[in-house]
Amino acid sequence: MARRVDxxxxxxxxxxxxxxxxxxxxxxxxxxxxxxxxxxxxxxxSSSFDTVSRYFDVAADRLGISDGLRSVVRxxxxxxxxxxxxxxxxxxTHVFSGYRVQHNGARGPYKGGIRYHExxxxxxxxxxxxxxxxKTAIVDVPxxxxxxxxxxxxxxxxxxxxxxxxxGFVDKISHVLGPTRDIPAPDVNxxxxxxxxxxxxYGKLHGDTPAVVTGKPVSLGGxxxxxxxxxxxxxxxxxEAARSLGLHPDVTRVAVQGFGNVGSWAAxxxxxxxxxxxxxxxxxxxxxxxxxxxxxxxxxxxxxxxRLLDYPDAAGAVGVEAIAPAELIAVDCEVLIPAALxxxxxxxxxxxxxxxxxxxxxxxxxxxxxxxxxxxxxxLVVPDVLANAGGVIVSYFxxxxxxxxxxxxEREVNDRLGKRIRRAYRTVExxxxxxxxxxxVAAYELGIERIIxxxxxxxxxxYT
Length: 464
Ligand code: NAD
Known about the structure:
Elements: H1 21-25, H2 48-63, H3 67-74, E1 78-87, E2 93-104, E3 110-116, H4 122-138, E4 145-150, H5 159-173, E5 182-186, H6 192-206, H7 226-245, E6 253-257, H8 261-272, E7 276-282, E8 285-288, H9 295-303, E9 321-323, E10 335-338, E11 357-359, H10 368-376, E12 380-382, H11 384-387, H12 390-404, H13 410-435, H14 439-458
Parallel strand pairs: 3-4, 3-5, 6-7, 6-10, 10-11, 11-12
Antiparallel strand pairs: 1-2, 2-4, 7-8, 8-9
Helix pairs in contact: 2-4, 2-14, 4-14, 5-6, 7-8, 7-12, 7-13, 12-13, 13-14
Bound molecules: nicotinamide-adenine-dinucleotide (NAD).
């Protein structure tokens, strides 16, 4: 069923909830004040920023960009690191580190998600901010790129603590945010609820401003279709890739790594389109079924507090068996959707991939070494900067609706999303085919060219 994978390289996150705040936090914050490395399995061969820089360099070399301009475009325009102190009752005060990196604003206000994860650091946020710059340019939305995060252990925090962290973080960075400056959105471990607190805190300081954040609850000015947008965009990208390979949904088996916002929506929508979901993993485990897994049934199991590990025993989960999480990558399938964290496809497991298409729902899931292995094996990789752009496209729609005090219906949002993903995919595909390069190289070339053109037209220092 699945090829063996070296389990020692698997990423293991989170863990059981600890009993006390002291037990869960233990020591004062030791976050570095400079970029640090080694976050995940792929980090052993390439840190997140090294990965993004490597992909950037390949495209920049091909475009013949001078060293000076390369430095300007590659590095972040602004990096903010702040302390976020939280009082934990008897356990005392703990200081978390919060980051906001504004990578490039040549094409418009900075745009990018906020991630809560105990191992987030400046290097990771820098990399994710740069990816956002390329992504917004590739799908041609009028934004630059940014990213933010707080290094807090979400699973060990209750709702009041999360709210306190969010408000504390916003208080420290609100001066660099704003609907014409920098517009956050949800990412790993943040959601519409967190965005509502963010909007509210920003509003207390600057007056009510719904357009300062996207991915809000619909009742507070969020857009219908935003929650599913990244997963839906992944499925639109699958349709384009399947078209070019002549792959029919009836014979398409799909494995999804990560069953959060992106993974669960991609799983639900791709099965609606006729494909069969044969494997799913999350941070608690992985399951497999040749006969197919019902993503709605699985979502209900998880929403009711069940763990993925226990899903094979759930009523109605017929033919589902547990597998080692590391084996998900190697499951026999046509489409693999990494939708968890960065660096999960690396040199030690890329050779085990059996899928014909890898659609990068996650940001930065494939290290450069793994990318080369996949390419040599003839696997079509739809890169993150294209495949998971559905979220930022609908965020753009949400922002535009907020600015006009107007709202569209879900059909209009989804149709517009589909048009934009198709257009971007075909533009990238044509370029890749004309220049005999991968979709990733073509996408990076396109994004970098558009950013440089915008910087030049504005007369930004360093571009001319
Ligand atoms: P999420 O927090 O909703 O879900 C993350 C999922 O990954 C969870 O199911 C978690 O259990 C799982 N996971 C964590 N570590 C894992 C591991 N080692 N193996 C398997 N599963 C693991 O986050 P999300 O919003 O769905 O984001 C997922 C990825 O997609 C991230 O890389 C994020 O940057 C990217 N992304 C998200 C959006 C968005 O709109 N939310 C947009 C673009 C890109």
